């Protein structure tokens, strides 16, 4: 009844921008992952911070849960309204509010997607570098602390959100951070909100760092017989201070999927795909120096190019990895895992994972952001075989436990959501309770994305 | 009486490592700044995390405030026990616990100084880059979110602390972060502790990112008639993606102080001092490209060198800036200010500040980390003239207000401490109360560095 009352008041506030039709609820009740459908009671489409503030006040008055929604590309079910309530879809708050080329920053609404943002930035010679693969919304990327292929060079959302505006559970609208490049003025609330998965408030504005579009790029690919050699090659490159813009690892199984999908004929061994950004001279030098390191570690000759069309082909192959792998088992559904370890433990983590997968009945090619120690398996299950889903879950759980045991984290970039809650105690110990205390301090009635991230009563 | 009881129990725990002699209390009751002496009731020298935990339990049982102390180089009085209690001096927890060259990280105790750490790292080819000038302790640097000359390239403590161990006010020992290079597993407690100025707990261990000692360095100096030209030159260099390792601004008054102090004969105009790190080829190219940008903005010919002894001389001059300026007014005491603004507002902020200083009776040369938009005035006052102290305070306050008005922050790197509390409401609005809520959630009885950072009851 309380929620019904909230919905009536929200309808008065939003009119047709409060939706209750089943297809709309269903579209906001499933994710790009394996969680059961969980339609909310309603979907709200606010258009301004002030409207979000009013929405929050109505929901708070009636104990109605609120769950933010970006582009719906989360892999861990962050946006599922597991305790009912209203999904707040930010797709109509998708404006680029102010671009400041001199300061290399931009203020945006949370619903803008990273591709739309970069399209708007094009004329400035600047770009927003964080690239999780999917065309996610900036708000969603901030809330999951997203990263991706370019993080080794440009950092993750942690490093690229300078400040934000959020509506708290009690309706207060706060601003965090500033437009200064650094500050020592108090707790880093920006960092606290980035990665909070909507549990502390609804973010309605973000200020982001931008970077200059590099003058030149070189990129290429090389192969190794052994994973250790590929990892050692990357370690040495980092230690030498050669600034890689991307450094991606794909295992033999992924290479075979590429070959089948794109008609290429790469040897079925681990590969590294790498990109350098800089001046025409520096990217040539970086590529040459990298080629020497590759040779020192027994890799194949590093074939690189400064031509943009070849880079596009290379990264299209990488970005299509998910689809290539999916196509390698017709009719399969993918369970995508995500762990991150210290780079010295990366080869061990990959090999133990491969061993586990080989001993199971399901295929699981591996690919990842090797410069960060972050990798994924794409576990291919037959959706009609419940045993395969259980097996995938077992493999995924073993990976998370392995990552924690090796000094890493149960999620490098996908977030906690529904899928990683079970590992939070193991990873954080009593610090998980500290997260719970912070949540309670800011949202004592647990209205902001309840049931997620913190220990549950 | 409660504190007396705590001190008795602490004496039983620590023996001669609990000190109550007046000289020792006085040494921990003044800072490198203008705040009145505030000796604590005792100084404790714990040697292990477990001892800190016991200390905290004793203090908590008797409502005795606890204030962390590193190298005592804070400029804002962070370590002053304004409500009495125990100063916890970490100078005996100064070990480098584990260096992991393959992962380019290190775990240290909080009392190690940055110079001692880099000395221990030397053989590894790695270094810890954050350089606030003073030979501060790593724990103190983390607690104030320190940065400095190299932040434009290597980031601040925010970017270089991967995780930490802290003893909370209730005696729980928590670990934050992991040794993975990134994580999306929950609230970023590491970032919350970095910059918390000891108000959330006592940090007993830190894991830091390391960087490869650059193969080659180029560095040099150039001058400009107008501040705007110097700033525009830096902006363009950043936009071009030329990676500066340091880029320091000194104004005409600072240049004159250098000349008088070191016998140099630089023209009395604004100067930029810049350094590039990389390969021998890349640092030469970077310097050449920078020289072109300098010329485009009307600067003097950029004189650079790849010779280490010349770099040492350059940065010795910069690092001695404080002493050079101090020597320019014999007998004077220095009040060092610290603000940070978006770089597009930097020239305006410097010029308005210069105008204010010129209209006052006290000198105040300006220097700063121009790549971050961060600068300092060193206001020289006669300690026997109370009116000059008031005037310095007025100028400093005007700077903080100016920074906030221009979209920046009242402190770029020195922290809040005693000196910037008055500006927290103006800078953060309701977000300051959120900081207070977090503090209360973790330290409900306000025992950890009470009277600092958050709104006071």
From TrEMBL, chains A, B:
Tree of life domain: Bacteria
Single GO molecular function: D-lactate dehydrogenase (NAD+) activity
Family from the record: Belongs to the FAD-binding oxidoreductase/transferase type 4 family.
EC number: 1.1.2.4
Chain ranges of the FAD-binding PCMH-type domain: 35-213
Pfam families associated with the record: FAD-oxidase_C (PF02913), FAD_binding_4 (PF01565)
Keyword entries, A-Z: FAD, Flavoprotein, Oxidoreductase, Transit peptide
Protein name: D-lactate dehydrogenase (cytochrome)
Cofactor(s) required for function per UniProt: FAD
InterPro entries: FAD-bd_oxidored_4_C, FAD-bd_PCMH, FAD-bd_PCMH-like_sf, FAD-bd_PCMH_sub2, FAD-linked_Oxase-like_C, Oxid_FAD_bind_N, Vanillyl_alc_oxidase_C-sub2
One GO process term, biological-process aspect: lactate catabolic process
């Amino acid at each position: 009844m309380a929620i019904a009352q909230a919905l009536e008041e929200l309808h008065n506030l939003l009119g047709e921008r409060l939706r209750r039709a089943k297809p709309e609820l269903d579209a906001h009740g499933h994710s790009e992952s394996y969680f059961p459908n969980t339609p909310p009671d309603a979907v709200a489409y606010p258009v301004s911070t002030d409207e979000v503030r009013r929405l929050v006040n109505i929901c708070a008055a009636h104990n109605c849960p609120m769950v933010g929604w970006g582009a719906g590309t989360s892999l861990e079910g962050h946006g599922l309204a597991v305790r009912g309530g209203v999904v707040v879809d930010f797709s109509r708050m998708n404006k680029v509010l102010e671009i400041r080329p001199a300061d290399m920053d931009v203020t945006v609404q949370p619903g803008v997607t990273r591709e739309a943002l970069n399209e708007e930035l094009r004329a400035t010679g600047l770009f927003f570098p964080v690239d999780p693969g999917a065309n996610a919304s900036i708000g969603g990327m901030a809330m999951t602390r997203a990263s991706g292929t370019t993080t080794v060079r440009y950092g993750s959302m942690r490093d690229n959100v300078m400040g934000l505006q959020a509506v708290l559970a009690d309706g207060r609208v706060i601003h965090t951070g500033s437009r200064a490049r650094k500050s020592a003025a108090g707790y880093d609330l920006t960092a606290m909100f980035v990665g909070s998965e909507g549990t502390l408030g609804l973010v309605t504005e973000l200020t982001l760092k931008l970077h200059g579009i590099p003058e030149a790029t070189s990129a290429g690919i090389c192969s190794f017989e052994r994973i250790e050699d590929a990892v050692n090659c990357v370690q040495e490159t980092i230690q030498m201070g050669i600034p890689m813009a991307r450094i991606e690892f794909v295992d033999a199984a992924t290479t075979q999927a590429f070959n089948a999908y794109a008609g290429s004929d790469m040897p079925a061994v681990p590969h590294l795909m790498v990109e350098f950004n800089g001046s025409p001279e520096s990217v040539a030098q970086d590529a040459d120096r990298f080629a020497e390191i590759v040779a020192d570690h027994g890799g194949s000759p590093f074939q690189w190019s400064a031509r943009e069309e070849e880079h596009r082909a290379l990264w299209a192959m990488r970005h299509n990895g998910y689809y290539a792998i999916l196509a390698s088992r017709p009719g399969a559904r993918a369970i995508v895992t995500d762990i991150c370890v210290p780079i010295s433990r990366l080869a061990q983590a990959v090999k133990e994972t491969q061993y586990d997968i080989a001993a199971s009945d399901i295929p699981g090619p591996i690919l990842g952001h090797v410069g960060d120690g972050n990798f994924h398996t794409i576990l291919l299950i037959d959706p009609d075989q419940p045993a395969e889903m259980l097996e995938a879950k077992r493999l995924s759980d073993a990976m998370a436990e392995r990552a924690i045991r090796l000094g890493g984290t149960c999620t490098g970039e996908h977030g906690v959501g529904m899928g990683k809650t079970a590992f939070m105690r193991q990873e954080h110990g009593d610090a998980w309770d500290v997260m719970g205390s912070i949540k309670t301090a800011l949202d004592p009635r647990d209205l902001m994305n309840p049931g997620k991230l913190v220990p549950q009563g």
